[in-house]
């Protein structure tokens, strides 16, 4: 991960990082071969830096973590999910703007 505030979420640490988190968690389901995923990556990193301490931000590589991807029915990427108290509060598929992501986070935090 290029950003110290973005956590790598895997099949094995999902429960600890997301389900049991005390803060809202923005999760970016992505893959290295996905051009829109690479485009939204810097936005995700900016949000992680700007909202550090208020929101956790993580990325799930769908190729390396098929269980979590299947659990949430990921069929198209990038897919952004926002969790609070272990529950999905928002989900967006495709390229989203920073403003759109920030407004969705503001609505639940």
What can you tell me about this protein's structure?
The chain is of the alpha/beta class and 109 residues long. It has a single domain, classed as Glutaredoxin (3-Layer(aba) Sandwich), CATH 3.40.30. Helix content is 36%, strand content 26%. It contains four helices and five strands. It has helices spanning 14-19, 35-50, 66-71, 98-108, and strands spanning 6-8, 25-30, 56-61, 79-84, 87-93. It has a five-stranded mixed sheet with strand order 1-3-2-4-5. Strand 2, helix 2 (35-50) and strand 3 (56-61) form a beta-alpha-beta unit. The longest helix has 16 residues, at 35-50. The chain starts with 5 loop residues before the first strand and ends with a helix. The mean pLDDT is 94.
Question: Quick summary of this structure?
Answer:
The chain is α/β, with parallel strands linked by helices. The protein has four helices and five strands, in the order βαβαβαββα.
Helix and strand pattern: EHEHEHEEH
CATH C-level class is: Alpha Beta
CATH topology (level 3) name: Glutaredoxin
Which oligomeric form is depicted? single chain
Individual helix count: 4
In the sheet with the most strands, the strands line up as: 1-3-2-4-5
End-to-end separation: 25 Å
- In angstroms, what is the radius of gyration? 12 Å
Layout: helices, strands, pairs:
Blueprint: E1 6-8, H1 14-19, E2 25-30, H2 35-50, E3 56-61, H3 66-71, E4 79-84, E5 87-93, H4 98-108
Feature tags:
single chain; 109 residues; alpha/beta; Glutaredoxin; five-stranded mixed sheet; 4 helices; 5 strands; globular
């Amino acid at each position: 991960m290029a950003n110290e505030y973005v956590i790598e979420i895997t099949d094995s640490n999902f429960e600890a990082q997301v389900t049991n988190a005390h803060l809202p968690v923005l999760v970016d389901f992505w893959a290295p071969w996905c051009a829109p995923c690479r485009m939204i990556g810097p936005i995700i990193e900016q949000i992680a830096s700007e909202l550090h301490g208020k929101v956790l931000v993580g990325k799930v590589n769908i190729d390396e973590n098929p269980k979590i991807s299947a659990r949430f029915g990921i069929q198209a990427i990038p897919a952004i999910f926002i969790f609070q108290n272990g529950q999905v509060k928002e989900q967006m598929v495709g390229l989203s703007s920073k403003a759109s992501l920030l407004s969705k986070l503001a609505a639940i935090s």
